[in-house]
Write a structure and sequence with these properties.
The protein is an alpha/beta fold. It is 40% helix and 19% strand. It has an 8-stranded mixed beta sheet with strand order 5-4-3-2-1-6-8-7, sandwiched between helices. A 5-stranded mixed beta sheet has the order 11-10-9-12-13, sandwiched between helices. It is globular.
Length: 397
C-alpha cells in the first residue's frame, strides 16, 4: 500500500464501462484495480482486483454514478488515506482545453457545453466526475483530455477543406484522440532508442478496438489520423475509419436510414466486424483466417494495408522517419499484424526481424525490425493510466 497521500485514483468512464485504478505516480504500481461492465444495463457487474485476489459484485444502481459510488464505497480505509487526488480520463476537450486541468464548477459547465462533440462519451465522463466529486468532496480532481496532446498540430493538419465558418462558428476541425497513449509511448520509445525525445521523429500506432496513428516530431503531435470524432482514420474493431462522405446519402436511401442510422452502422457494425461478418476481435479473426476464412483474411489485410498507408502519409509530416511504434492490444500482441505492416513498409526502410517480432521485442529492447536500417520498429506497451496519474499529481502538488 502507498503511504498516505501518495496515490492517484484514476477513473475512466466509457459509454458502457467504468475503469478505476489506484496508481502510484512515481512507480506506476497499481495496488487496486476495478472494472464495471455493462454499465447502465440490468446485467451490470463490477470486478475489483487487489494483487492476486479478485472479487465481483452487483451495484444496486446500474448508472455510471451508481457504479462509481459502488466502487468508491469498496475502497478500504487505507486506500482512501492513500488518495491524494482523482484523475479522470475525458475523451474530448474541444478547442477550450489544451492541457490537463483541475476540475471545479466552472470547468464542469464548460465540459457540459462540449457534449455535442462527443455525445456517446462526454456524458459518461461527466457522470463519473460528478459521482467522484460527490463521494470525495475534499479530494482535488483533475481532467486529462484525450485530445490535448494533439493541440500542437499546425493549422495545415487540423483544418478541413470546408466552409471556414464551420470552423470559426461551430468548432469543426480535426482534434485527434488517444493522446495520452501516443504521448506515453513516444516518450518511452525515445528512451528505448537512447535519444532525446526532441531529436526523434516517430509514427506511433495505437492499434486496438479503436485505432489511430500519430506523427510525433520533437515530442509533439504534428498530425494524426482521427479527426473531429474517433470515426475518422484507420480501420477499427467496429468503426469504418475513412469513407467517402458521398456514400452517406446513397446508403441511407438504399437502406431506409437517416443520417444518425448510417453513422450508427459506421460506428458499431463496420471495421473488422463489418468486413469479416464474424468478429471485431483480431484474435478471433486470426484464428478464423488460419482455418481458411477468406472474409477474416480480407478484414485483416484491409486493416494492415490502411494502417501502412497512414504511416507513409504521416512520414510526410515528419520530414524524416526514425521509428514506428506499435502499441495497444493489437499492436502489442499481434505478431501477424506487425509482420504484415512491416512488409508493406519496406519502402520506408523497414525490415522485420522475425525472431524478435515473435518474441514481441522482449529480448531486443522493444525492437521488432532488423538492425542495420535507418528506421526502427518498436513494440511499446502503453500506460494511459500512468500519464493521467502523473498529470494529476503534478497539478495538485
Amino acid at each position: 500500500m502507498q503511504a498516505n497521500g501518495s496515490a492517484v485514483l484514476v477513473l475512466n468512464c466509457g459509454s458502457s464501462s467504468v475503469k478505476l485504478a489506484l496508481v502510484d505516480p512515481a512507480t506506476g504500481r497499481r495496488s487496486m484495480t476495478a472494472l464495471g461492465e455493462r454499465v447502465g444495463g440490468e446485467d451490470v457487474v463490477v470486478h475489483i482486483g487487489r494483487e492476486a485476489r479478485t472479487s465481483s459484485s452487483v451495484p444496486s444502481d446500474p448508472s455510471h454514478h451508481g457504479v462509481v459510488r459502488h466502487l468508491l464505497e469498496h475502497l478500504t480505509a487505507d486506500e482512501r488515506k492513500a488518495v491524494v487526488a482523482v484523475g479522470h480520463r475525458v475523451v474530448h476537450g474541444g478547442r477550450r482545453f489544451t492541457q490537463s486541468v483541475v476540475l471545479d464548477d466552472a470547468v464542469m459547465t464548460r465540459l457540459r457545453g462540449l457534449v455535442d462533440l462527443a455525445p456517446l462519451h462526454l456524458p459518461a465522463n461527466c457522470a463519473g466526475i460528478d459521482a467522484a466529486r460527490a463521494e470525495l468532496p475534499t479530494i482535488p480532481q483533475v481532467a486529462v483530455f484525450d485530445t490535448a496532446f494533439h493541440h500542437t498540430m499546425p493549422p495545415v493538419a487540423y483544418h478541413y477543406a470546408v466552409p471556414r465558418e464551420w470552423h470559426d462558428k461551430h468548432n469543426v476541425r480535426r482534434y485527434g484522440f488517444h493522446g495520452t497513449s501516443h504521448r506515453y509511448v513516444s516518450q518511452r520509445a525515445a528512451e528505448l532508442l537512447g535519444r532525446p525525445l526532441r531529436d526523434v521523429r516517430l509514427v506511433t500506432l495505437h492499434l486496438g478496438n479503436g485505432c489511430s496513428a500519430t506523427a510525433v516530431r520533437d515530442g509533439m503531435s504534428v498530425d494524426t489520423t482521427m479527426g473531429m470524432t474517433p470515426l475518422e482514420g484507420l480501420v477499427m474493431g467496429t468503426r469504418s475509419g475513412d469513407v467517402d462522405p458521398g456514400m452517406l446519402g446513397y446508403v441511407g436511401d438504399r437502406l431506409g436510414l437517416d443520417l444518425a442510422g448510417v453513422l450508427d452502422q459506421l460506428n458499431t457494425r463496420s471495421g473488422l466486424l463489418g468486413l469479416s461478418m464474424l468478429s471485431n476481435d483480431m484474435r478471433t479473426l486470426s484464428e478464423a483466417a488460419n482455418k481458411g476464412s477468406a472474409a477474416a483474411a480480407l478484414a485483416i489485410d484491409v486493416f494492415c494495408y490502411r494502417a501502412a498507408k497512414a504511416v507513409g502519409a504521416l512520414a510526410v509530416a515528419l520530414g524524416r522517419l526514425d521509428a514506428v511504434v506499435f502499441t495497444g492490444g493489437i499492436g502489442e500482441h499481434s505478431v501477424h499484424v506487425r509482420s504484415t505492416l512491416l512488409g508493406h513498409l519496406g519502402v520506408l526502410g523497414l525490415r522485420e526481424d522475425a525472431a524478435a517480432n515473435r518474441a514481441h521485442g522482449r529480448r531486443t529492447g522493444g525492437r521488432v525490425s532488423a538492425e542495420g536500417h535507418d528506421v526502427t520498429a518498436l513494440v511499446v506497451p502503453t500506460d494511459e493510466e500512468l500519464v493521467i496519474a502523473r498529470d494529476t499529481r503534478e497539478l495538485v502538488l
